[in-house]
Specification:
This is Twist-related protein 1. The chain has five helices and no strands. The protein has about 140 residues and is mainly alpha-helical.
């Protein structure tokens, strides 16, 4: 089971504590305090794992951005990418429910993708216009 990082007992405010104050909380199972070198090694390894996790997450967002039809002016943040992906999934669901795809278009994936991308862009812009007009 993955541990929720946000529930970790160490908070950013804990960084201001000196090493001597931290050592009682950071003992190994055997009860002996870890050496400074061991703590440094653990920190380096944790940093490597975090960089790998961040890189993996960024690669996943890049892949998602390639799938979602966007406008040339779009430079989407991660949250914007997720929100747009959710809207695109909803749009595709609506298309499937309305049975507007004919069998010829469905047989040519490139044409289908281009038509869906265009339709989604129009749908998206209509939504943006109606949202701004209602404010």
């Amino acid at each position: 089971m993955m541990q929720d990082v946000s529930s970790s007992p160490v908070s950013p405010a804990d960084d201001s504590l000196s090493n001597s104050e931290e050592e009682p909380d950071r003992q190994q199972g055997g009860g002996s305090p870890q050496s400074y070198e061991e703590l440094q090694t653990q920190r380096v390894m944790a940093n490597v794992r975090e960089r790998q996790r961040t890189q993996s997450l960024n690669e996943a967002f890049a892949a998602l951005r390639k799938i979602i039809p966007t406008l040339p002016s779009d430079k989407l943040s991660k949250i914007q990418t997720l929100k747009l992906a959710a809207r695109y999934i909803d749009f595709l669901y609506q298309v499937l429910q309305s049975d507007e795809l004919d069998s010829k278009m469905a047989s040519c994936s490139y044409v289908a993708h281009e038509r869906l991308s265009y339709a989604f862009s129009v749908w998206r812009m209509e939504g943006a216009w109606s949202m701004s007009a209602s404010h």
